[in-house]
Amino acid sequence: MATTNEPGTQSAVVKDTGPEAGRPVVELRGAGKAYGNIRALHGVSLQVRPGEVTCVLGDNGAGKSTLIKIISGLHQHSEGEFLVDGEAVRFTTPRQALDRGIATVYQDLATVPLMPVWRNFFLGSEITRGPWPVRRLDIEAMKKTADEELRNMGIVLDDLEQPIGTLSGGQRQCVAIARAVHFGARVLILDEPTAALGVKQSGVVLKYIAAARDRGLGVIFITHNPHHAYMVGDHFSVLRLGTMELSAARSEVSLEELTNHMAGGAELAALKHELAQVSGVDVEELPEEEDLTAPVPATPEGKS
Ligand SMILES: Nc1ncnc2c1ncn2[C@@H]1O[C@H](COP(=O)(O)OP(=O)(O)OP(=O)(O)O)[C@@H](O)[C@H]1O
Ligand SMILES: [Mg+2]
């Protein structure tokens, strides 16, 4: 692509994704958002391509949710540009984003726990049959389609009649992903889908993120976890205090580098300095600055 370097990202390590990459479905160019006088996001450039996973990493308050709220139509950007299929847009409702094929799976999945899996799959978009005024829900068609779509994604559930509330958090995320794929999403936004999950369930969700990518969707995967990001990511964007600190293709960044960006070596060193002035904290036991920028601190509490 021509440019990823926008004013406002000068301090970022911006690398190009290469000429072979496809045209972005969704693109932000120097985008930002202020809530009153709080600048939550500033100068962020990001490209989402079909068949790729774009990971957005960052600590609490980094601006990750603000970024996806702009793309999913919940908030509007107050600076820069937001493009879909190369056309500048400004969504005022999530419906407008959905109509352009941008589906968002929020962490607190909007499901009805006591309703069966197949019913949740079609929630708000039920299949009906028969003419008005005797139109009825086409239960058989919905069950069959839900079953097929879940299987197409490699998700096998014993019984689609079971209430969705009885599924594990990971399984519910997977159903939400299959649902977005079925309803024609081209871009799938996942807000920290693995945050509340254990190792095994996270693995399952990562597998379906890869499955959605292989079906040609552009995936935006929000996470705190560089390990999860690196397992499926094609591109990595690290946000810090609302600006983009790193934007790099997979070939340009190692897991160690990504982890270091997330760990914020310099910030931890500053914290150590501050803690030194608080009585009761033995800073000698904290790792040295060099250790903080080294790959994944193994056992920080180990006394040497
Ligand atoms: N509606 C709002 N009004 C005012 N400030 C907000 C609003 N939403 C977010 N902010 C502020 O914007 C900044 C970025 O918040 P955001 O929720 O985007 O971060 P985040 O990266 O999603 O964090 P987390 O990992 O905790 O979810 C924070 O300083 C937050 O306090
Ligand atoms: Mg958030």
UniProtKB/TrEMBL annotation:
Record-annotated ABC transporter domain positions: 26-266
Keyword annotations: ATP-binding, Nucleotide-binding
Acidic residues bias spans: 282-292
Top-level taxon of the source organism: Bacteria
InterPro entries: AAA+_ATPase, ABC_carbohydrate_import_ATPase, ABC_transporter-like_ATP-bd, ABC_transporter-like_CS, P-loop_NTPase
Stored Gene3D superfamilies: P-loop containing nucleotide triphosphate hydrolases (3.40.50.300)
Biased composition range(s): Polar residues: 1-12
CDD domains in alphabetical order: ABC_Carb_Monos_I
Keyword Nucleotide-binding among UniProt keywords: yes
Protein's name in the database: Sugar ABC transporter ATP-binding protein
